[in-house]
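Hi U.,

Before I forget, here's the chain from the pilot set. I'm dumping it here mostly so it's searchable later in email.
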Amino acid sequence: MRDKRSGRVILLAHCLLNQNTVVPGLVKHSYSSLVPELIDLLVEMNIGVEVLPCPEFEMFGLHREPMSKDEYEERGLRKICREIASEIKVKVDKFRAAGVNVYGVIGVSGSPSCGVFKTNLKVNREKVEVSGMGIFMEELSSMLDVPFMEWKYKDPEDSLAKIKETLSALPSKER
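Structure:
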């Protein structure tokens, strides 16, 4: 391609660009629509965004109860996550075939679907944050060889710093 495209893209968890799909009651006031500082960083770094579908929303809609990873697992979310991940893999392959560099995936800390380093499980009837990936990120990571990063709503400054560091450290052919 010989136009003004950056030739760079990142895969972004859906709720980072659309808080309207988050389980009711979990949206933080400062992020009523999207996460602006993350978008600002991607604009600054000249990286396009491919929005990942939200598997929880796809399967259960907006009016759903908050569930843990194991509760979603019991209700069959892995199947839809695997299907969506397969579609994303095809899209990534098309980007790469067209010369677009795929920088990675940004998930959401603590999410039962999109957690990268932290997810949550039900332990003694309580949701507990644990180390590990959410269901969707597990499926994506089994199909994609890209860096996985994580947004922490509880610590946006640290999230921005780590994401910027990861993206800045990629070899030039991937940046």
